[in-house]
Amino acid sequence: MVEFKKIVEVGRVVMITYGPDAGKLAVIVDIIDHGRALIDGPTTNVPRQAMSFKRLNITGVKVANLPRGARSPVVAKRLADQKTVEVFNKTSFAKKIAARNTRATLSDFDRFKLMIAKKQRRNVINREFAKLKKQN
Whole-angstrom Cα distance, residue 71 to residue 61? Predict the structure, then answer.
């Protein structure tokens, strides 16, 4: 039996993937129907709005004890008390997005330095591998 870890539920932290708020975090405050949820992101300046699940990435982080239909001040207080944004930033999903953004902002010279560093690392690995292969 497969156990799902990312369930659509009130208090689940989501990342918006499309529209003017793309890349921002929000919290599911209420579930409207099987295709939409009411989200709110008072700490990330996401207005309270209904949004399709197609435009959301569900994360593994959840705000505990958030009542259904909670108003923005309550959501903001729970986010701050539980340090939800910091918890999200420690996840592999957040680290992957940060690495992607870092790579996207590299200059031409930074990409060149990265290429040289990868070449040097590859040479060291290949030399050590050749030594080990020669021993056997």
Answer: 20
H helix or E strand, kind and range, residue 63:
none
CATH code for 12-105?
2.30.30.30
Provide the whole-model pTM.
Answer: 0.80
Residue-wise pLDDT tens for the chain (136 aa)? 778 778 899 999 999 999 999 999 999 999 999 999 999 999 999 999 999 999 999 999 999 999 999 999 999 999 999 999 999 999 999 999 999 999 999 999 999 999 999 999 999 999 999 999 999 7
Closest listed residue to residue 35, CA positions, set 61, 59, 54 = 54
